Amino acid sequence: xxxxxxxxxxxxxxxxxxxxVQADGFDTVGRxxxxxxxxxxxxxxxxxxxxxGGQVGGDRAAASGDQDHGKDPDIWDLHGKFEGKDxxxxxxxxxxxxxxxxxxxPDGATGYLDPGADGKxxxxxxxxxxxxxxxxxxxxxxxxxxxxxxxxxxxxxxKGLGAALEAGATGQEPGTPLGKPELHSEGQARVMQSTIAxxxxxxxxxxxxxxxKVPLGRALNDYTADTHAxxxxxxxxxxxxxxHIAGSGDSASITNSKESLLRVMRGVSDGVIGTNSxxxxxxxxxxxxxxxxxxAAEYVDTGRQVPQSSLTENVTSWxxxxxxxxxxxxxxNAIGTDMVLDDRxxxxxxxxxxxxxxxxxxxxxxxxxxxxxxIAQRAVDAATYEWSKDVITEKENIARAEVSxxxxxxxxxxxxxxxxxxxxxxxxxxxxxxNAKGEAKQSYxxxxxxxxxxxxxxx
Length: 459
What we know:
This protein is mainly alpha-helical. Helices cover 49% and strands 4% of the residues. It folds into two domains: 2-172, no CATH class; 270-455, no CATH class.
């Protein structure tokens, strides 16, 4: 215990604030009841169990106990797994447990994970790229001889990290219902931008740990205004992006490259965010796509108001916004296509092709999707075409190698959305609305092809 607390004391914030922890359950954990085989530093695990049941000390919660790069990476290893509904209460990894506690104080999580304007705080990089998360010791028997096997991770690994990332990037506790898309503080945006950049090191953003998919998916939806700009090609320095965030104060936004964002969105997309009223899985991709649809309708609605007499010609502001919307949905449909085609999904027991990708609706999980104004919501509600059909169409074309780089067979849902919005302006089927859809079509192809390239979908 003393060694654990001494390790955490090297950092400016205290892991366990004195006088702010309720001791419920301490006797049981302290005696080791239910702990099982445990490990060399089981006292550290016990301390986090106590704090998980207590009051969090605001932004003083920290999880830096093992970020000494010369430290034994096996310090928290256990002999046996402690995961799932029966044993998951035990803080098998105190650092992950402390990160989970930290997520209850979003400002504290932001301050802890924010790399800073100078990039000198390396905690986020350490947790995402360097830390040893394999905390379960294994053994192998050869005859009567027991040999030490490779360490493995248990199914709870990184859950605390995911919660802290969501809180630090959004400024809200994990799972907080989303409001309208807004900008973020500089610290929050740096956490989100750096998370995307770090996960995509070596173009590996499309492979993300299972326990990070849902919290990162919710965080990405909180950044829908930014991600739509990146996918739509109108973000600063698009499509290559910038190494730093845009804006300042509480009006900051992320500026990652389109390729990195596409890969990370793909990486989280097959996570299961919940179930609908019929018990069908709702994937992170479903919520991301719905978030983009809502924001697209809101974005197009910022186009210039024109009199009916002007609908016989193109309206430039409608064309520009439709172009951006088309490019964004080209990318989104490509992500969905890559999901359906990717063998990795079937290897981990995901639902098969058509069923996996049938649109299940978000229903009760609507709080995972950013909100929009009345006009945009009316347009989305009226656009009844099931957008998953576009994904299946693109998937079938790719599978038959029949997609040329000049076709846009998956654009029906995008056109349906623009039509529904145009109807709110009494402009459906007008020359202005049709011209806007033509602009969307060309950009849709661009967005899809760029995404296929980033995701290596075309073999």
